[in-house]
Amino acid sequence: MNPRDAQTVLFVRAVESIDTGDSLLDDGVKSRANSLAGAPLPADAPPSRREKYLVARAGQLIDELARRSEQVQHWSEDRKRVSGRVWGAFLFLVLATVTGFLTNELGAEKRINILAFPLLGILAWSLLIYVSELIYLLRWRGHKGVHPWAEALRQFVRRGRRKWEPESGDEEELARAIRSHESSWSPIELTLLTARLKTTLHLAAALFAAGAIGGMYVKGLANEYRATWESTFFSEGSELRPFLEGVLGPAAALRGEEIPGPAELDRIQWTGDDPAVVGENAARWIHWYAITIGLAVIGPRLLLALLWRLYLARLSHTIPYRRVDPHYFDRLIALASGKKQESVVVPYGIRLDDETRRRVRETLEELHRRSLELEWRPALPFGEEDSAAEALAGAESGMLLFDFGATPEKETHRLAVEAVRAAGAASESPTVVLLDPTRFDRIIEGLPDRVARREERLHAWEALLEGTGAEWHLVEERKATGTPA
What is the pLDDT of residue 142? Predict the structure, then answer.
């Protein structure tokens, strides 16, 4: 799903989540949108067909909301504006090229310092960028990275949008829905913006370097420039030559040449008070720097720009929209196909009875707002945590059932959750953990500190599941009380 469609679908999700009283979108509007989008869906509809249905349905509901609200109309129009962003990137690239062309050391004195070339600074800066990209890649480990400039750029773009003050109750609900949508869309938007920003910056750096090289060649065509050197840190040619070998040696070797020896370098050292020092023709130094920058800056920067552009293209067609609220989308598809939603439950270290099954079913049906077809798989005993993923194999929607009263342990409960999470790493559905507190509540019943004990055990489970990406729910009430850990 591309970014525009994903944003539309997630905006409608936010509206429907806030609009619990159906004041913004009543059942008749939703039913008409479902039909126009292609409902009912075949029971075995492929993922592409399901996505097409979600997008078409959301588009119908957005159009309905836009007819009722000027704010939604403006939001929809802002979402479609991309020309300004494209022109901004284009002008930035042109500016980088022109700035590089005008930035060079071939000045009016017709003398250049081979250690003061702007290309030497470009080379050093690019090497730092490569190191930072490597660190960024090592720290990424599969999660979506965000460039620190991305948030600033997004705030700058949003600054020009018109402020909206809701007046009626419906407008207040829309305002809440917009805020909810912005919160859920923000991580996805920043990831996309980071990829665009990195693509543009790497391409701009390559064009800046190319412009600097082009500027030197153009100015050198009509003037003879002399190459000299002076330095605070190098006092003679024997000290300077190893540095030049490291920087320009590969380029000189490609041309079948060598870096000048110490005596030759001493002859072109500029002292400022010796009129006999006129330097040498700067042509070979310009060639060497041009080759070096081409190999070390332009080529790698273009490659990085291409890689980020490919990543952006892939990301733009695989937006992980379901991760925002998988239960909402499961419910929509189940309603559109007219079938019960199937879920698999694997108990772990807990004894099942009919009452437990009933509470689990009621909790899940309240959560999904849809009848469920539960499949109870054999319980996993302690010590077989690694088998949790196998126990849930083949399930589109699966979850682990733990005893809330058991002491949460990393070596057992967390290991089982992580095994399931690792096995379904490519899935957009979260790992779901159900906590049954029935036995625990029976044990602490009548104790004066039962509330504190329950809160303490709840915090222990929260701490155990934190960082696993699991979504947990208590099952003793009709309404799910858990929050994503």
Answer: 44
Residues 6+ apart with CB under 8 A from 8: 55, 58, 59, 62, 79
Identify the H or E element spanning 398: strand 398-403
pLDDT of residue 480: 37
Question: What's the mean per-residue pLDDT of the chain?
Answer: 81
Q: What is the pTM of this model?
A: 0.68
Rama region for 215: left / alpha / beta (φ>0; ψ in -120 to 50; rest): alpha
The domains located in the chain, with CATH, are 84-225+282-316 (no CATH), 340-474 (3.40.50)
Q: What is the pLDDT of residue 426?
A: 46
DSSP of 254-320 = HTT-----HHHHHHTB--SS-TT---EESHHHHHHHHHHHIIIIIHHHHHHHHHHHHHHHHHHT---
**Which of 405, 410, 412 is closest to 435 using CA atoms?**
405
The top-scoring range by mean pLDDT among 22-26, 67-71, 216-220, 305-309 is 305-309
User: 10 Å Cβ neighbour count for 323?
Assistant: 16
Q: Can you tell me the distance from the alpha carbon of 364 to that of 482, in angstroms, rounded to the nearest whole number?
A: 12
CA dihedral 350, 351, 356, 357 (to 10 degrees): 100
d(CA 335, CA 119): 62
Q: Which amino acid is at 85?
A: R
The enclosing H or E element of 473 equals: strand 471-474
